[in-house]
Write a structure and sequence with these properties.
It is built from 9 helices and 13 strands. The protein is α/β, with parallel strands linked by helices and about 325 residues long. It has a 5-stranded mixed beta sheet with strand order 3-4-2-1-13. It has a 4-stranded antiparallel beta sheet with strand order 5-10-12-11, sandwiched between helices.
């Protein structure tokens, strides 16, 4: 495969695909800088889009940026490139999360390239899924996607799933008594639908999904008691398919790897005809996060709780224009 010329349009297309990644509250905490002379695209954290109460260690920020990095790698591979990635290349600049060399030689990663069509189709779905199990071969492909990025994906048994659902409720109760967390959620979510809304970030009302009737699945209710026009009630699946994504260690490099693994799992799930929603609530409180993991598994640090299944695709959340996140020098 011959790569397209590395011109401004190519870089903008790559960054547009990168920024289709999920992030905590859709805050989109990333910035990119392209260095023309070296052909290097740098990924920076944007501290102005951090959530200091919800995400005090910036773990979620790193995961969101890691997800954007995975999308960038997928798009580059689909364009015939073999990107050279260095994580945290400058210890003196913690905002610089990765450098991606785009003019190197070598064959593109065909497995990554095959995921490219899923980048724009992937949306979080906070709607009811069908009450059916995910086939074992599909689970194995998803677990392999995580392993290829240095993380683990574990499907807990029904007893552990029930425990996780209870821990999600505990996290919601804890959050209710944390005013700073509450205020951050209010800031980044809008009960009104996005029709005519010029916002380029945050979560609009149509992406909230319906209220749950009679069951409990790990879907964060972003309404926080605010009225949402047109929002109704629905019965969700009684036996949700839950997966835990985790890493052996718990440092910024591991969070970046976890973000890449998360997005690779989500793109593979999309390619396999599944939809997904994410909840970080039980991982945002140290005592609850510790309890989420399965002591029988080797997973030391749970980074995300993922709900997977067959159901309606979620609404697309807005994205910032590439011109707002890309600097070319």
């Amino acid at each position: 495969m011959n790569a397209a010329p590395l011109d401004a349009n190519t870089i903008e297309d790559l960054v547009a695909d990168a920024t289709a990644a999920p992030s905590l509250h859709n805050a989109q905490p990333w910035a990119f800088r392209f260095l023309r002379d070296s052909g290097v695209l740098r990924l920076y954290a944007d501290p102005d889009r951090a959530l200091p109460h919800t995400d005090p260690e910036n773990r979620g920020l790193h995961m969101g940026c890691g997800a954007a990095l995975l999308n960038l790698r997928v798009a580059a591979a689909a364009g015939g490139r073999a990107p050279d990635v260095r994580l945290l290349p400058d210890p003196a600049d913690p905002r610089l999360l990765a450098e991606v060399g785009l003019i190197g030689t070598g064959p593109p990663d065909s497995a990554l390239a095959r995921l490219a069509p899923a980048i724009r189709r992937r949306h979080s779905s906070r709607f009811p899924f069908r009450d059916e199990e995910i086939p074992v071969p599909t689970r194995e492909r998803l677990a392999e996607a995580a392993r290829l990025e240095g993380a683990d994906l574990f499907f807990p048994d029904p007893w552990h799933v029930r425990s996780i659902l209870e821990l999600v409720q505990d996290a919601e109760a804890t959050e209710a008594f944390a005013p700073g967390v509450h205020e951050e959620t209010i800031r980044w979510t809008r009960p009104e639908p996005s029709t005519g809304d010029k916002a380029s970030d945050g979560i609009p009302g149509e992406a909230f999904g319906p209220l749950q009737r009679g069951t409990s699945v790990p879907v964060r209710d972003f309404a926080l008691g605010r009225p949402v026009p047109g929002r109704g009630w629905a019965a969700f699946e009684k036996n949700p398919n839950i997966a835990l994504l985790g890493t052996a260690r718990d440092k910024p490099r591991d969070w970046l790897c976890a973000g890449q693994a998360l997005e690779r799992v989500l793109l593979q799930a999309t390619a396999d005809g599944l939809v997904a929603s994410l909840t970080s609530q039980p991982t945002e409180w140290p005592d609850i996060r510790w309890a989420v993991r399965d002591p029988a598994s080797a997973m030391a640090n749970v980074q995300m709780v993922i709900r997977l299944g067959h159901g309606p695709q979620g609404a697309a959340s807005p994205r910032r224009p590439v011109t707002d996140v890309l600097d070319v020098r």
